[in-house]
Amino acid sequence: MKFNLERADSQEFARWWVVYRNANEDFSQQYSEQYHDIEHVPFCYWIMLEGRRVGGIINVENNFGDFFLIPPFTDAYAILRSILPSEGTVNARGILSEHVPIFQMLGFQVMESRRWMIRPTQAYDVSFSYRRKVPQPEEAGNIANLMYAAFKGGAGQYGRRDVAQHRQSVDDYFEHIKIGDVCHQASSVLYDSEKMVAACLIQTYKALVTIRFVVTHPDYQRQGIARQLIEFGMNSVRESYDHITLAVTVGNAAESLYYGMGFQPGVFLSDLQRG
Questions:
Q1: Domain of 30: which CATH number?
Q2: What is the pTM of this model?
């Protein structure tokens, strides 16, 4: 079988992507919301066999992502062996769990897997041992330094980021939220005297509320601080939101905390690389 890639109209591609990839990894539920995630992506391709669509993929200079099959075609191995370059470094991103072994058969290694988790919000009575305040934009640098200290050498992309990359994420958080709204008030930074020791940043994402980051300085871990921050956040948003979500790297030590707090896991998506 000989397959070829054919450039797709991004809006038409998005309509097929939400049905046949159908990961709903962030619990957004509605096809219309998932459609908007990808409707303007310009590098969408149909996978064609003898003039008919058998799958879809996004491709930017040997970076392939969001691969899906269109029933009744099921031979993912034949497609990937045919369309993926045989030389050079090739990246595969956002790959569904059922396709990961096929990429591995073709010589790819998993670089990172991430999943969203969800649970109902709930009332909690939380008292902190350290001074709590609502995070402000002028604290972005300190939050980024805290994240670097906590994540350095850990699992996934956050373990590889430098301070500047963490700062970009924190700045993005402050650009996204509305200062003083319920999610901002549910967010926290904790101080031991003048030292920032923990942070939890909460924001809306689509129709849900999500914990963007929760982080504790290594010298203050294993005191239950992260649990308290999450409980405080859930209590603070419970009258406005029924559920709360977060995203976690598979293999991160925090996974066990989230499971222990009743977070339900969603599907995981993987990034892989060959070469």
A1: 3.40.630.30
A2: 0.88
CA torsion 64→67→69→74, rounded to 10°? 80
Residue the block writes with tokens 């470094």: 89
Q: Measuring CA to CA, how many Å separate 189 from each of 71, 131, 198, 258, 265?
A: 49, 8, 6, 20, 26
Instruction: Look up tokens 């924001």; give the residue.
Output: 203
Cβ neighbours of residue 16 closer than 8 Å, sequence gap 6 or more = 53, 56, 68, 70
Residue 199 has pLDDT above 70, yes or no: yes
Assigned domain for 261 exists: no
The parent domain of residue 22 ranges over: 3-113
User: Do 240 and 254 meet the contact criterion of CB atoms below 8 Å apart?
Assistant: no
**Residue 272 domain-assigned (yes or no):** no
Report pLDDT digits (tens) over 8-42. 999 999 999 989 998 788 887 666 667 777 888 99
Where in 50-108 does DSSP place strands (E)? 52-60, 63-69, 90-96
| Residues 93 and 164 grouped into a single domain | no
What is the pLDDT of the chain when averaged over all its residues?
94
Q: Which residues pair with 95 in a beta bridge?
A: 270
Phi then psi for residue 268, to 5 deg, are -110, 145
Under 8 Å CB-to-CB from 103, ≥6 apart: which residues?
Answer: 80, 92, 95, 272, 274
